[in-house]
Amino acid sequence: MAAQTAADFLDDPRFNRVFEYTPPGTTSPPFKIKYADYGYRNEAHSEQERIMFFSGPLMASRLVLATKDELAIKHKIRIISADRPGMGGTDPVAPKDRLTLWRDAIPALLQHLHIPHLHAIITHSGGTVYALDLVLHHPTLLLPNPPIPPPSSTPSPPSSSPSPPPQTQQPTTTLLALGAPWILPTHTASLPLSLLQSLPPSLISHTDKLIRLVGGHIAPALGTSAGVLNRLGGASALWSGATSSPADGEEGAASGEVREEERVWPGVMRRVYEEGVAGVSDEALLLLQRGAGAEGGWGDWGDYDGLVPRLGEGLRAAGRRVRMEVFYAESDTLTGDGGVVSKGGKWFDGLWEGGEGGVVEYGSRTVKGADHDGIWWLRWGAVQQVFEAVGETGGRNESGDVSR
Fold first, then answer.
1. Vertex 309 angle, CA 307 and 311, to 5°
2. Residue 281 scores a pLDDT above 80
3. 261: domain CATH number?
4. Residue 254's pLDDT is what?
5. Residues annotated as region Disordered (predicted)?
């Protein structure tokens, strides 16, 4: 990415792939999904790839995590990310059908890419809703639990043959990393989000028009979630940090990777707006649970407190476990400041205290310095922790060149 403009970097075919999805039992034209497939690739030995699916925020573009390409290569992680309906190059769909379509379209995309299981799912803000719905309905996308070998009654005789070379240890449990998870204001006491939720659905449905009106001038500053809703609610005086950029942080000396991300990020956001953001209106209606078809909550589970017990049952039935790590922003205008000690953080953490019968290993932490939109910026270090947990160091081929 170094020495490239953001436009040249994003023109790479890896960030501009198209998949046509035909829902089973329909005769309608295929549903077009634009997606990105980047990071580490090893087509000769695909078993060495650690597969990560990114479920993005309100501005649900496939490009939001693109600046982590080199980091993914370093840790042998292959990232799959798709524009959600109505964003970028993906066809639109009615708000009431977004979750239903997406939960089946993503497994079809992964099957198209010959990906049977995911080593990790990483989410940002509203992407948490989609990711948990996906895991609830398709738990077999997670890594299967390794079988426990039966105890041997007799010791094995010593072998005179040389020991086989050590093999790369593969993860045995899928990591679900939730960044600044979307939490309804009922559980957070967030005044700005409460005000937004009280707006008429007819106004929320024009979110895309509002941000297109200003996007040509301040698109890089609008951000991916909080900044967008800030403009919709007109509450900028209350929403400190909502329009920050990666360069606004003061946490330590910036590395070369951090400076490079901060250099290209405005161009990434500009490309997101240029490709189209019409779907953000329907996205806002869904996440705020407003408008036709949304009054009953998300999907067939309503809210997280309705999902958790069902998820535990589904994982046990499928013979799966998941390791869940939640990363709260220290300053969050949508779910409340304070991270794990915020009202929203305490409520969300409390839902998982039981571990759901041993199938969910849960942990949470506060990312110092980060705000809602910047939870995965390299500057704050959380995304590096996730990639280190999922992958391995040394994503280079035998000639020393970075594999792509």
1. 65
2. yes
3. 3.40.50.1820
4. 64
5. 145-172
